[in-house]
Design brief:
This protein has 111 residues and is an all-beta fold. It is 0% helix and 41% strand. The chain has no helices and 13 strands. The strands form 4 sheets. Strands 7, 8, 11, 12 and 13 form a 5-stranded antiparallel beta sheet that branches. The chain has a 4-stranded antiparallel beta sheet with strand order 1-2-5-6, with no helix packed on it. β9 (85-86) and β10 form a beta hairpin. 21% of the residues are buried.
């Protein structure tokens, strides 16, 4: 096996400790921190069927609160954001939302 040449796309913010997941031909970056200040932003990058970026990043509905270092998983169109850190506090909540038509729904359930 071999690895093709790497290509690059710039993310829309200087983030650390963010989470990332691919869903429905889109790449999502959720939360993270900027200079140790946790964020609630969600950025979306549309991908073609080969995983190549199709256009620029855009924002969608924010997380219900600030969060970094969380685990994120998908089940179908459902996003699940688990745990993470809010400021300096470890969190035990699970946030869930639906990703449809390239956007996170307004529905925000906190378990």
């Amino acid at each position: 096996h071999s690895l093709d040449t790497w290509s690059s796309v710039t993310i829309p913010a200087v983030l650390a400790n963010h989470s990332m997941v691919a869903i429905d031909n889109h790449l999502l970056i959720l939360g993270g921190d900027v200079s140790d200040t946790d964020q609630d932003t969600v950025f979306v990058l549309p991908l073609d069927s080969d995983g190549i970026p199709r256009r620029l990043w855009y924002g969608t509905a924010s997380l219900p609160g600030i969060r970094s270092r969380m685990a994120v998983a998908t089940k179908g169109q459902r996003l699940l954001a688990v745990g993470g850190r809010e400021t300096a506090t470890a969190m035990t909540t699970i946030w869930t939302s639906t990703f449809r038509s390239g956007a996170i729904s307004a529905e925000k359930i906190i378990l």
